[in-house]
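Milestone M4 deliverable, item 7.
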Amino acid sequence: MNLSTVFTKSAKGVMELSSRASRLPRDLMKVLRLVDGKSTVRQLAEAAGLSPASLLATMEKLEKEGYVKEFAPSGASQATNARPGTAPPPEDEGESLDFTIILNTGPLRPRSAEADAGRRAREEAQRRAREEAAARVREEAERRARLE
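Output delivered:
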């Protein structure tokens, strides 16, 4: 682990952040919140206001307890031999919910025709409601003008 290492939250880390009953000390939670899978240890240290050495020690604790893991490990040469868009082989057989690999799987699927039709119907209903409200305001203004 060095200052250019990038970490991502593990499933345990995500669950810890989403639960109301935190089991981690405040300083570890502060660093865990900053982990985004993009920032290096050096950038995290700057954001947390900690020295790089202190943050490295904190990251080691979080990694040891299973809250974070290296996003791009130094042994990335194994992944270069793999086909593009495929996941590297798992390092262990433990259950990990690392969804970061799906970010590189290719183009998104197109939206369904039903979803598009529903969106268009909602937009049309909103447009009609606005027009009807404007017509009511106009009629009310004309009625008041005739009474004066």
